[in-house]
Amino acid sequence: MLLAWQGDKLTQPQASQKSSVLSTASASPSGFTYRSFRDNLAQHMSQQEVRALRALGEDFFVLVDEIAWSLFETRQRDHLLLDLSSQEFLWETQVFVNRFLRNCVDNPGELPPFCRELRDSLAKDEFQDHFEALLEQSYQEHFYLPESESALLV
User: Is the CB of residue 31 less than 8 Å from the CB of residue 85?
Assistant: First the structure.
């Protein structure tokens, strides 16, 4: 299911016909509290800095939360390999998605329209498949553990 913001809450409004990186979200594991990217930013930045990030647009924050949560859910065991708590892994996943989206544009002013178009495009299966492949490759590169020598995270 896709996650969506309704008021101040992240909800799962509708079922998707295709399982994907954006449609695999489920209920939180017991004892784990999901914090949105904005909530996590507020723990690391001043309120003034967080407010300034509104210029990135609502679509940006929705995408970070949806993609990061889906990765978190599908890659739950990675936090053990990375020696992170679940909460730390969620934060690192959100930071990864933030960087991934920002790297998709040439300048910050292009980010809001890019994110709006990306959300629309992800509804198309063919595009979604291509996006998931790019995201997976980038995830592997970001979370690669050089000392493990065996391979990338699986």
Answer: no
